[in-house]
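Lab meeting, item 3. Inverse folding demo.
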């Protein structure tokens, strides 16, 4: 696969990016050409002119095999949607990051859309409704943990209290990063949010 490289000059070679969403099936392939965004995935293929891209949503989406995974959801004015991930399955036990290639591809996609005069909606993080639900769940877990900690202390269960404190710290580190990075926002072509890129 040709490595992504920033080069928006007319007639420049296409910029390509590919990843495997699962061990089964072929790679999802994307190409930035002078005409637009060409894609091939799951036996389907197409090409979208940069001006016909209706929206891009960038987000931070860790999974158990890859805690540092980013995602771009690209929507077409006709209703189609494609997803671009920053990681690729290599083996049954390895999901490899493609941070640099993903970052360059996303930056170049935005640059070409801006050059085409795109009016796409550019958003980052979770939707406002999903973010509110996530905050509510985090608050419920925090209240439950605080209750368990108080009970462990009043019953003089120091080992249990220490376990709860450790678990709470791990939870805050894991979930706190997800919540912080995925705060809903709108951005412009020249101000892509760094927290939503590898």
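The presenter then showed the designed sequence:
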């Amino acid at each position: 696969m040709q490595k992504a490289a920033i080069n928006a000059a007319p007639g420049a070679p296409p910029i390509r990016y590919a990843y495997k969403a699962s061990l089964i099936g072929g790679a999802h392939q994307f190409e930035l050409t002078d005409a637009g965004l060409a894609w091939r995935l799951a036996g389907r293929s197409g090409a979208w002119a940069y001006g016909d891209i209706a929206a891009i949503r960038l987000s931070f989406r860790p999974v158990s095999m890859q805690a540092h995974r980013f995602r771009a959801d690209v929507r077409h004015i006709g209703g189609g949607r494609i997803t671009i991930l920053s990681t690729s399955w290599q083996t049954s036990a390895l999901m490899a990051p493609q941070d640099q290639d993903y970052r360059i591809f996303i930056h170049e996609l935005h640059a070409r859309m801006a050059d085409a005069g795109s009016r796409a909606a550019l958003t980052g993080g979770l939707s406002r409704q999903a973010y509110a639900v996530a905050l509510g769940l985090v608050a419920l877990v925090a209240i439950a943990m605080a209750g368990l900690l108080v009970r462990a202390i009043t019953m003089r269960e120091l080992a249990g209290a220490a376990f709860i404190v450790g678990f709470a710290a791990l939870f805050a580190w894991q979930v706190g990063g997800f919540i912080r990075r995925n705060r809903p926002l709108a951005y412009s072509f020249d101000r892509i949010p760094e927290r939503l890129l590898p």
